[in-house]
Write a structure and sequence with these properties.
two-stranded antiparallel sheet; disordered N terminus
Length: 290
């Protein structure tokens, strides 16, 4: 029998939800890596499906009128945006996305227009950023592996650090379980793991690990911020989970909140440094601290 801990809960209860989280996490990691290995088209399709799930969850979460119409229209726009991004036709994809956001806002009616539009933009951010990274002329596969390592490392170590170390809460009003110990453990572990993964692919000049570690810290911090953002949205609408699609994790939004923000951040950094066609180079290749 486990010794009691303060509050009367058994010590073994600290990780009582670890088993379903672990099983679901392993399955999702295997699917994501499998899609990455199969090639760009399968990869884009995999994340398009995830984006469609987010559209469905978000549009139902906000409890606005015409939910079915919003899900259908939002899904259709997201598919077209994904196809256009796959063809690097961003000059068509972005206006279409803006028009789709406006349509969903109109369908949602007063008081929910911004929320409905934001849901489509949120899902599109995931699909567009990952598509651009993966289809980059160079380093596309490596950039996704780096992103996986940073976010997964952050998530896993933040969870373990928070549960095993405990201590002061980070922001209890929004996410009552998160601690400073978990946050710090997670971001440093994620950044370190990301740099370590790229070290395996280092082929000479161009891969400077110190600035890449710093970029990983930024991505990890924003991944945690994305988690808080999604928690705040759920609290705003009075729900615990976005859905029950993933055992132990809730919905797709619950699982991808931090990953989505980190992916958008990485894509923006790469685009600012290199441009859309070679976006992954802008993420991974740093020389002389630049």
């Amino acid at each position: 029998m486990s010794a009691p801990i303060p509050g009367g809960a058994p010590k073994s209860g600290v990780l009582t939800d670890l088993a379903p989280r672990l099983i679901s996490g392993v399955v999702m990691i295997a699917l994501a890596l499998g899609a990455l290995w199969l090639g760009s088209d399968w990869f884009v399709l995999f994340w398009l499906i995830a984006g469609l799930a987010i559209v469905w969850e978000w549009q139902n979460l906000i409890d606005a009128p015409a939910a079915r119409a919003r899900v259908f229209c939002g899904g259709a726009v997201l598919v077209l945006v994904s196809v256009l991004t796959r063809q690097m036709a961003l000059d068509l994809a972005l206006p279409l996305l803006l028009a789709g956001c406006a349509l969903l806002g109109w369908l949602a009616g007063p008081g929910k227009r911004v929320w409905a539009a934001a849901g489509l933009a949120y899902a599109a951010g995931l699909v567009v950023s990952l598509t651009l990274l993966r289809l980059s002329l160079f380093d596309g596969l490596e950039s996704i592996l780096w992103l996986f390592a940073v976010v997964w490392g952050t998530d896993i170590m933040a969870y373990l650090g928070g549960r095993l170390i405990g201590g002061p809460k980070l922001w209890p009003a929004v996410s009552p379980k998160k601690t400073w110990a978990g946050f710090l453990t997670g971001i440093f572990s994620g950044a370190l793991l990301g740099a370590g993964v790229i070290a395996l692919f280092q082929k000479g000049a161009g891969y400077s690990l110190l600035p890449l570690f710093a970029l990983g810290l930024g991505a990890a911090i924003l991944a945690q911020a994305g988690d808080f953002f999604e928690s705040a949205v759920k609290r705003r609408f009075g729900v615990k989970d976005a859905s029950q699609l993933i055992p132990g994790h809730g919905g797709v939004m619950d699982r991808l909140d931090g990953f989505l923000v980190a992916a958008v951040f990485a894509a923006l950094v790469g685009a600012l440094r290199q441009g859309p066609g070679t976006i992954a180079i802008g993420v991974l290749r740093w020389q002389g601290g630049q």
